[in-house]
Amino acid sequence: MRAHLTAALLMTLPGLAAGCAQGAAPAVREAVPAASPTAEPTAEPTEPASGPLAGKIVVIDPGHNGGNASHPKEINRQVDVITGRKPCNTTGTQTASGFPEHAFTWDVATRLRPILRRMGAKVVLTRPNDEGVGPCVTERAAIGNEARADAVLSIHGDGAAPSGHGFHVIMPGLLKGHNDAVVKPSRRLGIDVRDAFREGTGMPYANYTARRGLQTRTDLGGLNLSKRPAVFIECGNMRNKGDAAKMTDPAFRERMATSLAAGIKRFLT
Questions:
Q1: Which residue, 110, 131, 227, 240, is the most exposed by fewest CB within 10 angstroms?
Q2: DSSP string spanning 169-219?
Q3: Cα 132 to Cα 140: distance, rounded to the nearest angstrom
Q4: Beta strands 168-172; 230-237: pairing state
Q5: How many CB atoms lie within 10 A of CB 26?
């Protein structure tokens, strides 16, 4: 864990770094050599600016990782998530055209980071690039805990049936003796992120799961093990043609990042 944690924390220092929810994804698949649509993310400030989030720490967790598919033994290793044992990590899903979830989440995260930094926040990513393996869900939660994050946002894309569309936010359920102190603030974070994401992107609530864009779960290690306010967002269903068109559009991913920043700001201020 220390190696992953050190890499993630280094990303808060200037110049040192450039789906589906965990456990719900299908078994490891072969990596798909699809070209990710690209566009330059928003320029990153060299130093965190003063602003409405000055003094706040935000941890961004881009789901999965680009090297997971080629390391099945490592990512399939079982870890304790309090309510059971789950794989260390998963490969995530992809669109019908082959745009993988890990690339989507990394792109949105690296667009979100400079927006938050311009607001004055210190930002920590749970992985330093999109070529690595893991880290495990337990390690991702530990990164937020050790950073003493004021908010933790895990970014995902869902892999549901193609007929389903829309986004939803997942919040931690109560596990007495483990996360009592963060369930209520996590719910507030979830509502703020949900509202801002819908307002900013125009995307509807998921029509195949959750209720009005909100869901509570106790089977996700990243939420169960977090001692800081934390939520997951499934930004859309990557298997749905309409959602996939938005998620593969760099301009729309920028819009998603801006909306997520607005939700985090709303929660922290």
A1: 131
A2: EEEEPP-TTTSTTTHHHHHHHHHHHHHHHHHHH-PPBPSSSSBTTEEEES-
A3: 14
A4: antiparallel
A5: 12
Tokens 């967790």 appear where? 61
Q: What is each CA distance from 246 to 49, 98, 106, 153, in whole angstroms? A: 31, 14, 16, 20
pLDDT digits 0-9 by tens, 8-56: 443 443 333 334 444 443 333 333 333 334 444 445 555 556 899 999 9
CA distance 238 to 95: 5
Known catalytic residues are 234
Residue type, 158: D
Give the pLDDT of residue 50.
84
- Better-scored residue on pLDDT, 32 or 121: 121
Query: Using CB atoms within 10 A of its CB, is residue 34 exposed (0-12), middle (13-18) or buried (19+)?
Result: middle
Question: Cis peptide leading into 135, omega within 30 of 0?
Answer: yes
pLDDT surpassing 50 at residue 78: yes
Query: What percent of the chain has a predicted confidence (pLDDT) above 90?
Result: 81
The two three-digit tokens of residue 236, written as one number: 């859309």
